[in-house]
Structures are given as structure tokens and as C-alpha cells.
Specification:
This protein is of the alpha/beta class. It contains 7 helices and 12 strands. About 2% of the residues have low confidence. Bound molecules: zinc ion (2 copies).
Length: 227
């Protein structure tokens, strides 16, 4: 990965630092307790706390907001979230959706045993609550945020320069053949969101779990759904 897009594995989930004209965006904040992973990457790239201009939360699940409170405090950067999940963020609650795949259903059962600790996090008051669309040019980045419900009601994706798409858990990429997340609130909405994203010119996808992939993987998954 070049210096413009930095992937950071924070516990089980990926966060990303994206370089703009005068600073960075941070996408998601990982599982609680993995804050040092971010510090290490920032040091490596000589990024200061004050260089982070915006924090985008793709959705309010514990594995994406675990370190948000401390990161917001250190960076003083505004936090952007979808309005449908703003209350959860304020309360420090997250609810995993039902299983979308067999493996996911099994995962829910296992995680059910760990409920409580897994599903709560330190609450944060967001600064920007978006609905369908939000232009981030005002922060010095050529990009936009779009609402992509399905995995959760307030899932959002960040598109940079109409080419790079940060998808959160709207697409997983652990294995070569599928992008299906193991959990989803609404599978039909999820596939509609894939179609919506496919209409953009995005070529490179940065998931919340797994490895970065190219457009063809999304197209292959959509073709299978359509048939
Ligand atoms: Zn996740
Ligand atoms: Zn999730």
C-alpha cells in the first residue's frame, strides 16, 4: 500500500488512514485495547494527532468504535456517523445483527456467550450525523460518504476520488470467492447497497475485515446474486 492509504489492523477489524491535502481521515477505530496499533503506524508515517482532521465511523459495532473515545480526545477531530446509529454511539451500545451465512449464525451463537463485554464500548457524542450523502471536500478531501444499509441500518461507505471505496462491513474479504459479511440486519438491503456502490467507478475496495480487493470481486458477487 502506498503512503496515501494506510491499513491498520486493530484487533479483528481494519482501520484506515487516508491522506488528503492538509491532513488525514481515520476510518474506524478497531476493537478496544488495540489503540497502540494506531500509534505505531502514525509514528512510522510521522503523523501527529493534530493531522487527523476527520474520523468516519462506517457503522456502530463494537469492533469499529472500540478506541473512538480515546482517539477523539487525543485528536480533537470531528466524528462522522450515520444518523440511524448516532444514538448507539452516544450510549456506547452495539448490537450484532443476525447471521447472514451459516458460519455467521454459528458466530452469533458463540458471541452470544460473550455478550455484554463484546457489545459495549465507551460512548462518544458524534459531531456530524449524515443521512443519504455527505460531501467531505470541506475537510480538504476529494470524497463523499454514501448510505449503504444492510449489514446494519446506518452503515456508510467512504468514496475517495471516485476510485477508492472504504466499505466497513458492507463487504468482507477474508476469502477469494465472496464478499458476503457473516452478519447482516437486512440481506436484501445489503445487496441493493452493493448495486449502488457498483454504479460508482470505484476500483479498489478497503473492507473492515480481510484484505483489500479489486472491483472484479464485487462484480463477480453481484453476477452470482443476479443469476
Ligand atoms: Zn466488523
Ligand atoms: Zn459490523
Amino acid at each position: 500500500m502506498n503512503g496515501k492509504y494506510i491499513k491498520i489492523k486493530m484487533g479483528i477489524a481494519n482501520s484506515y488512514l487516508i491522506k488528503g491535502n492538509s491532513g488525514y481521515i481515520l476510518v474506524d477505530t478497531g476493537v478496544e485495547g488495540s489503540f497502540e496499533k494506531l500509534i505505531a503506524k502514525m509514528k512510522e508515517a510521522s503523523i501527529k494527532y493534530s493531522d487527523i482532521k476527520l474520523i468516519i465511523i462506517t457503522h456502530v459495532h463494537y469492533d469499529h468504535v472500540g478506541n473512538l473515545q480515546i482517539i477523539k480526545k487525543k485528536t480533537q477531530a470531528p466524528v462522522l456517523v450515520h444518523i440511524r446509529e448516532a444514538e448507539l454511539l452516544k450510549k456506547g451500545e452495539s448490537y450484532l445483527p443476525g447471521g447472514n451465512t451459516l458460519l455467521g449464525s454459528l458466530g452469533i451463537k458463540i458471541m452470544g456467550l460473550l455478550k455484554g463485554k463484546q457489545n459495549s464500548f465507551k460512548p462518544v457524542k458524534p459531531d456530524i450525523e449524515i443521512r443519504d450523502y455527505y460531501d467531505i471536500r470541506g475537510f480538504g478531501f476529494e470524497g463523499e460518504v454514501i448510505h449503504t444499509p444492510g449489514h446494519s441500518a446506518g452503515s456508510i461507505c467512504l468514496i475517495i476520488e471516485n476510485r477508492h471505496c472504504f466499505v466497513g462491513d458492507t463487504m468482507f474479504s477474508y476469502v477469494p470467492f465472496t464478499i458476503n459479511p457473516p452478519f447482516a440486519d437486512d440481506a436484501q438491503k445489503l445487496y441493493k447497497s452493493w448495486e449502488k456502490i457498483a454504479k460508482s467507478d470505484c476500483q479498489i475496495f478497503y473492507p473492515g475485515h480481510g484484505y483489500i480487493f479489486h472491483r472484479q470481486k464485487l462484480i463477480n458477487n453481484l453476477n452470482r446474486k443476479r443469476n
